[in-house]
Design brief:
10 helices, 8 strands, about 10% strand
């Protein structure tokens, strides 16, 4: 990582959107110190066991299942939200699973359906999470979760990792009956923390969430664990890394 934290925190109303590689050239009228971090769920929770289970239950079809399932999961969330027929994360996830197996001509037994859905409700944290979260908390930063997932799933996962107390708030977009990248979803962190957006670093897992957070106005870090290409949406994360240790080094440098 060549960008230091001091350069990253140069933010102001009307400042241009820049990538990490060009951030050093940005000059603005004032500086704002990051006081809180809002995490999407998946920088914290590891979804790989779901893919592993899909492969076990449907040998040779796991990658195809996950590709169709995750795409349709997002589609269903937004189709329902935009049409005024909201369904929560778990319902949209189950409906998209049913579609996926039909499209791939796979037989989804009741037992397999229950196993796959239970996997979403029993997420574990990535191995690097406990130490990184403790380091961020020791620095005095306020931490919150802001996710499209159900709050009960997030809370249970943090309790299982003994990290519930590290997060000041657990926010699910179920509370507004919509999903990110709805601007109202990102505003939930501001309303909870009572901080201006430039003092809240949003940590995204997916490229589309990077775009949504940037459009809303958050300084944004892309925890790109899957080494995915950036979305072609006209904005980029202010900085990025592949694990939480890179985030800790970035945020705490020069603090």
């Amino acid at each position: 990582m060549t960008v230091d934290r001091r350069e990253f925190l140069v933010l102001a109303a009307g400042s241009v959107l820049v990538s990490a590689s060009s951030l050093a050239a940005v000059h603005t009228a004032r500086r704002s110190r990051i006081k809180a971090i809002a995490f999407d769920a998946f920088p914290i929770f590891d979804p790989r066991p779901i893919a592993q289970l899909a492969e076990i239950l449907f040998p040779g079809n796991g990658p195809a299942i996950m590709n169709v399932w995750r795409t349709r999961q997002f589609d269903y969330q937004w189709l329902r939200a935009l049409s005024g027929r909201y369904a929560n994360f778990l319902q949209a996830t189950e409906e998209s699973l049913l579609f996926t197996t039909k499209q791939l001509h796979l037989e989804l037994s009741e037992d397999k359906r229950q196993q796959l859905m239970a996997a979403w409700s029993n997420l574990h944290v990535w191995p690097d999470v406990p130490d990184a979260i403790k380091a961020l908390r020791r620095s005095g930063l306020r931490l919150v979760l802001l996710s499209n997932m159900a709050a009960s799933v997030l809370i249970d996962g943090l309790k299982g990792a003994r990290l519930r107390d590290a997060f000041e708030a657990i926010m699910s977009t179920d509370g507004i009956r919509s999903y990110k990248p709805d601007p109202r979803a990102y505003r939930m962190a501001m309303d909870q923390l009572l901080l201006p957006r430039e003092e809240i670093l949003f940590v995204a897992f997916a490229g589309w969430d990077v775009a949504g957070a940037k459009w809303f106005g958050y300084p944004t870090y892309w925890l790109n664990r899957q080494v995915s290409p950036a979305e072609e949406l006209g904005v980029q994360a202010d900085a990025s890394g592949q694990d939480l240790n890179s985030l800790v080094q970035f945020v705490l440098r020069d603090s």
